[in-house]
Amino acid sequence: MKKYIIKRLLIFIPVLFMISIGAFLIVNLAPGNPVDMYVSPDMTVEQIEATKEALGLNDPLIVQYAKWVTNIMRGNLGFSFSSRIPVSTILSQRVGPTLLLMSISLVVAYALAIPLGILSAKKQNSIVDYIVTGLSFTGISLPSFFLGLGLIYVFAVQLKCLPTGGTKLLGVDGGFSDQLRHLILPVIVLASQFAANMIRYARSSMIEVYNENYIRTATAKGLKPMQILKNHGVRNALIPIITVIGADIPKIVGGAIVTEQIFQWPGIGSLMVSSINSRDYPVLMAITMISAVAVLIANILVDIMYAVVDPRIKFS
Amino acid sequence: MEISSKLKFANPANNHGYEVVESINANKEGSYFKTIARRFAKNKVAMISLVLFIFLILAAVLAPVISPYPPNKTVGNFEAAPDSEFHLGTDEIGRDVLSRLIYGARVSLIVSMGSVAIYVIIGTTLGLISGYFGGITDATIMRITEVFMSYPYFMVILVLVSLIGPSIWTVTFVLGFLGWPPLCRLIRGQVLYIKTIDFISAAKATGYSTSSILFKQILPNVLSIILVNATFGIANAILTEASLSFLGMGVRPPAASWGNMLSNAQSLTVLSMQPWRWVPAGIIILVAVLVVNFIGDGLRDAVEGETK
To answer: What is the rounded CA–CA span in Å between residue B227 and residue B32?
Structure first.
């Protein structure tokens, strides 16, 4: 086990290196120069050149990359082009709201989806199953912006009982209940998507488990359904569920671009949109890089969890 | 990664332990696909979805014939509510919303089918090569897919499309070039299994060329996997294009896309006072994605031989 983790971490290094090259190229190879965004039409050619020089955009790509990577390894993410504030400062302001929104959404989603998926599998081809499956299909097919706008229309515009966006009321201190009210709509949007996806996996893996012989044996020898589920079923159904969680977790860091945009949530997702609009390369590269690292770490954790849950999985 | 690919039920959307054995005989290929079609036809939800999807394709193809007005011309009053003349009202510069919706179907279908065609070609080819040759080729391709799959999908698409310059073609190509790794891994896994079956060594022994083994012997056996994956891929691509266009970073006005028609609803006036400008577009995205997902689900059940 220890050996396996060390091996995974060793593979991690070259992949991380390739990811950093990718993140750099994605942002830098695209046509359009960030300087165009920061020069006024009355600047002379010399002034434009000076700006480029100051931002380090005149260096050959490989030099720019080397500078960027060595700085990252020292923990320095550089300075934002548009605000000249250190990228790490900007990120630290934005990461809090995103963490809050995403983690609440995930918890709500799983708390609903896993029991529903199990229920749906247990009552396969019943009315309950059709409703749950239908809801989950609708959930994965519904564009988040349409759901978000619809919720704003119903609850903020028509019923006037919830705010349209932001994290809290401006000017007044509404306290905890005010923050909670601002969370409700974005959490519904995000949780419904996470849940819709999770239901499908939970259902199909539980159906597979229910068809296994040892479950039939357990039923035949008269164990109660809950006992069967607890002692025999859940462990085996966990593998696909862990896979889904592993794919969802990195999103806690990266945020939800569309949902944050609709609800003016000041998180990483909306920072992404504004950085794209201002071609703020250092911020874009930092977010891409951090999100990719989060995915890599989640992958390793998922592989380790597989082994914890199912000892039959042997690492080689 | 190695471990997750060994778990056949790691992903119900596209990897459910397809039974290769029943499809393994290349001569029976025709009857195999007939069996799938027969099973699919028994699935009512999937069949209704298929009919609706065909209507959508027809609407897109026949857009110039069936649209009441040209999509990009001012034909009525600004922001007029639906009436007998403009069934879904008009937008901020007096264009007919219904006609724009019909033309939007073209954008959705071009982007989704185009990008899926691109990633199916890349993913299938690399997956076949990776699984068949093994060794360093395989390791290299697998590391590349790992790198690709580490980036947050929507984020990278957003950055690439907006920096290259948003247009229907940029969206199509970016989605196509980024979408192949999951399919590639799926096909590789299947090829690893097929390779162990006798008819491949028989083909080798009788002196078939490598490309003929890859594309004439192995490919037919992974076609059903490709079909299911591509169907779900189309649903995802419709959603992704709509989201990008909604953010103003996909298909841009004056071209009509379902996503960019909803952009205006970010203004509170449009959202609260002019529902005809965003509700129909939202519903049609939902319906289009839903029917494609149902078709995909029906296909998967048919391929797996589940009888419902």
So the answer is: 14
